[in-house]
Design a protein that fits this description.
Blueprint: H1 11-21, E1 25-26, E2 28-33, E3 40-45, E4 48-53, E5 56-63, H2 71-79, E6 81-86, H3 92-97, E7 116-117, E8 126-127, E9 132-145, E10 151-165, E11 170-171, E12 176-177, H4 179-182, E13 185-187, E14 193-195
């Protein structure tokens, strides 16, 4: 067993250990809109999870680059709106293209074959090809700081205002979603992703 004092490790080492051990991670594919223009930003984030069902809250942590806030965080904070999509096999190649670093005034979607769909509850459009999308409003924004007080990440808590679920993945009669039909992809470490593997069931103890 290797034992490390966290205070002795570099940020790069922390990144390697955390992203290599907390796996698999679902990938949020997020669209936001600039407060100053109609440019729609799209980007994937794997620091993503559920926070609460009452109210319906999800979390996305967006790391800063050199202390600079990323477009997704900046837009969501200023407008208070975002659309979160579940990343899946059918769209993963196009989703990956949006991870490119581009000028703020340029939409990543212009470099993909993905198309926009109007939203019902927020002004930010979603991705038409996504089988699951959640229209959200910003519930809270928490600045994550290092030991020196420098902000290193923006933690967004987003409240779901509405869901759009493809009939291929959602059973309206039972209210359940079909994991295999969704074909979710998850993030591992480095450039690696994984698909949904073997499923098994364990009942909780009474």
């Amino acid at each position: 067993m290797f034992t490390f004092n966290a205070n002795d490790l570099s940020a790069k080492t922390h990144y390697k250990i955390l992203t290599g051990s907390i796996i698999p991670r679902p990938v949020a594919f997020v669209t936001t809109k600039s407060a100053d223009s109609e440019v729609v930003n799209a980007a994937p984030f794997s620091y993503f999870s559920i926070v609460s069902a009452t109210p319906p809250l999800i979390s996305i942590s967006i790391q800063r680059a050199g202390g600079n806030q990323k477009d997704t965080a900046r837009h969501a904070i200023r407008t208070g709106e975002l659309v979160v999509h579940i990343s899946t096999e059918p769209i993963v190649e196009e989703m990956n293209k949006t991870a490119a670093t581009l000028p703020s005034e340029e939409s990543e979607l212009d470099h993909t074959s993905l198309t926009l769909a109007p939203s019902t509850y927020v002004s930010v459009p979603g991705i038409a090809e996504a089988s699951i999308r959640m229209e959200c409003t910003l519930y809270d924004h928490i600045e994550i700081k290092d030991d020196d007080g420098a902000v290193t990440a923006d933690l967004l808590l987003a409240k779901v205002a509405g869901y759009h679920l493809s009939p291929e993945v959602y059973d309206n009669s039972t209210g359940y979603l079909d994991a295999e039909a969704i074909q979710p992809i998850s993030r591992l470490a480095g450039n690696d992703y994984s698909k949904l593997g073997e499923l098994f069931t364990l009942k909780r103890p009474e």
